[in-house]
Amino acid sequence: MNKWSKIIAIPLSILGVLLTFPGVVFANVSENVNAWANAPAMRGLDSVDLKSTILQAFSRSPSVTQQAYQLGIGQAQIREAQSAWYPQVGLTANTGNSTQQDFSNSLNNAAAYGLTLSQLVYDFGKTNANVSQQKSTQESYRYKLLATMSDVAEQTATAYLDVLKYQDLTRTVEENIRALEDVRRMSSLRADAGLSTRSDVLQAQSRISGMRSTLKQYQASLSAAKAQLESLTGVKAKYYQPFAANDFDNPVVPENIDYSKIPTVLFAQTQQESASYEVSKAKSDYLPTLSLQASRTRYETNNNPYWNNQIQLHVDAPLYQGGAVSARVSQAEGRKNIAATLVDQAKLDILQKASVAYANWAGAEGQVQASAAQLQDSIRSRDVYKSEYKLNQRTLNDLLSVEQDVFQAEFSQVSAKYDSWYSLINYTTAVNNLLPQLGISQGEKQSLPDLK
């Protein structure tokens, strides 16, 4: 039994406890009346990666749990629709004086009781259409769950990348501060030797102070990103493993998207199928319903109690209902037309998201290459400037300027890299490839992910 089967079985287990030990259960509820107000649980781990983080988010997300419960409701709705084909057995009983006008009033009775049986024989497709509609609805719940899990995975992956990004930016600022401290020490040595003024030292120190302020800003952003991820997953990690971009396929041209595997499109499609069955069910109301009805009733009369047995073929054929059936048919057809537009809307939404993500990814990839070349040029310039500064051929402003160029190139490289990864996550989510590429299998027929 997987996690989702257990979730669906939870309400039944709770019901069994309530029926067996009602006093104990309600006593525990009264003792823990404020338990609902407790803060969400948190736990610590030494290390996490993107896949384990997303799985933690699945188990914590109320929206995922709600959709899992909805699957159980859908299955119950199917069973309810199918129950129309089974015999309907009932118990009848009444008491009180009942007078039937015969010659001797011998049929007067004070009570009657018995059993009734009704068996549907044929209803011209009403029940079959209802069962098919509920099956389509239950299937739509499954795709809704998959779409919800995909959204949660995208949100969690974005939060995970935020943490990694601000970690890298923080390290970049720290490296720049160390480089500026080297410049300050160099200027201090030159000032002590009388080769430059003390203002160079103060100028370098002022630049260091500015970068330390920037460092505080990125450290605050890193703390906020970790808090966001911890809220989504319920896990506080000491180490976040690097993002394995090589495990993801590069985006393809959006025109080649396979919409038949995307949960949001499949959800809309099953809604359309459900609406089609609703039309069939509404049209079948024009036709009669045949059922076999039987009863055995005991009458307690004043003089001679007796049994009354009946078995009849019952026909329920609507002749005129003031246009109610045709109105229901028109409503069902209207809902079917609306459902058809939802399929087109789902595909357009995916195409838009995938197209924007693809364009952003391509642009970011180009920026990564450009910033890498810029960084190399800046590092070479810095080495030359340092040598020329020692020979008194460059000013401190030149050296501080080239350090700023190096920092800006490193900053651009980190930003472009993560812009590319953000776009990659957005694209793979849009085409329903995020979970499979993380190794969270959805199966050949869009089955639920394996959370082991």
UniProtKB/TrEMBL annotation:
<dbReference type="InterPro" id="IPR003423">
    <property type="entry name" value="OMP_efflux"/>
</dbReference>
<comment type="similarity">
    <text>Belongs to the outer membrane factor (OMF) (TC 1.B.17) family.</text>
</comment>
<keyword id="KW-0998">Cell outer membrane</keyword>
<dbReference type="InterPro" id="IPR051906">
    <property type="entry name" value="TolC-like"/>
</dbReference>
<keyword id="KW-0813">Transport</keyword>
<protein>
    <submittedName>
        <fullName>Uncharacterized protein</fullName>
    </submittedName>
</protein>
<dbReference type="InterPro" id="IPR010130">
    <property type="entry name" value="T1SS_OMP_TolC"/>
</dbReference>
<keyword id="KW-0812">Transmembrane</keyword>
<keyword id="KW-1134">Transmembrane beta strand</keyword>
<dbReference type="Pfam" id="PF02321">
    <property type="entry name" value="OEP"/>
</dbReference>
<keyword id="KW-0472">Membrane</keyword>
